[in-house]
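Weekly structure sync - notes
Attendees: PM, LS, DV (DV joined late)
Agenda: review two folding runs queued last week.

Item 1: First target. Sequence and structure tokens pasted below for the record.
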Amino acid sequence: MVRSTLVAVLPLAVAAVLASACSGKTDTAPSADSPEGGEPAGTSYTLTVGPLDVPAGTEKTQCVVMHLGNANAMHVNTIHNTLSQGSHHMIVYRSTETQEQLTPFDCVPFTDTLDPAKGTTLMVTQKKDDTLSLPDGVGFALDANQMVRIELHYINASAQPIQVTATSTFVAMDEASFRDAADFLFIGDPDIKIPAHSQFSLGPIFFQLPPEYAGVNFFAITGHEHQYGTNVTVSVAANATDPGASVYDVPNWLWSEPATVQATPPFQIPQNGGFRFTCDWDNTSDNQVSFGESANDEMCFFWAYYYPSQGAKVCMHTTQYMGGYDLCCPGPNLICAAIQGQIEGSDGGGLGLGGGGHGGGNQDGGGASDASGG
């Protein structure tokens, strides 16, 4: 779940930058070259977060940074994540940090994606048991002794303390079969205001992809909403008036266990085309529900995995500013630079960028354990 980072900063950035001005080239994505050596195919490394002691009524987003434990550079084509009770979602990053931080600390979602010099997103998980299997010949490149950042959003809505645990397992592929590096896109719309005791739909929304994504191969999509969400659908469209071809439409879709739809074969976006998506909700509460970071707020997003890599981005469409605006960060514009500056300047604090809605400080009685080879 991406925090309200983009929405909190966008009005300030738009006021200062009346148009999205170019500011040079984006940072270079990690190399897709096949690592020398590699690990034997099927070798696995598992990272564990927790158990964390979570008091009643606590909601937080916290991170740890750990060595994966791989002696050699390698490519992985399978990542398997598990979440215990109380876990809302987990994001796994390939990180450039050099020091482990095994004690969970409050953190801002997608910080590493917004600054590719710090790392890139590998996988987002909201299901209790989630496996991402990449197509043949496609993998994520990991350096020797790779650092991994794990971001965990958890909530204890009960009257009793609970313990939260999460794991992430990386499985090496045959280096001789590696062909293309995989990457990640996160796309959504924050224009959400759902009246109390009502059903509501946002969309269909057309998001035109940046030109470098024309011709890449998308192989998996997952929709994302919170507790009032009833459906997310996604189509590929040539333009804003094209009804498109469906690529994500899951019968009996569940917000708490959103299906990842694997496309076999992968699909492509036409030149100047993009995604057309719709989100539906049923607000059974006594209050209006709007976009926000808490599990009690709502979101309308989906994430997609693709190859060959053109970089990982967080993208947003909104009609609240400048009569409509599309934005992908990181990117060569001053709005993305302003957002990144606000994140770095706030240290995860002001502008609603801090940890979850309740509770304070790092959790005692829990932490992260080092990787265990398989």
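Item 2: Second target, run right after the first with the same settings.
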Amino acid sequence: MPPRGGRGVGEACRSGAAHSDAPRAHGVTTFSPGRLLGLSIEGLTSFSVAPLRFASLLGLLLATGAFLFGLSILWETWTTGKSVPGYPSLVVGLMTIGGVQLIMIGIVGEYIGKILSELKARPIYFVAEHSEKRAGAQQDRSAAERSAAE
């Protein structure tokens, strides 16, 4: 089970060891459902730009829906001659503007997400074998230096 808030940094390619959590030592939790909800939203939005991509896709869907609705209103007006004054153009205009705004918010969010990932300066991947070998070699050297100093 991943930790609260989603997957941690660099945990994409790691494998875990089996363990069991100890029971709570004292009292009950002080986290209210509202704070837990806030924590989950923070976990969803801090490690990915997926919500912004969702906004872009929703905007594209809304703009496409507005275009199709506008076409259906034009078709109905041309074929039957019935039209409701003001309503169709207002709805199509509002849906189009809302869709374009969501698309633009998603695009700007993608840029901000890329800037954030560059600012974090995290490595693209971790090489566990080499870092473990180096850590073991450094421990062996420091142990040898300590024994030589004694």
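Discussion on item 2: The CA atoms of residues 58 and 101 lie 10 Å apart.
Action: LS to circulate a short write-up before next sync.
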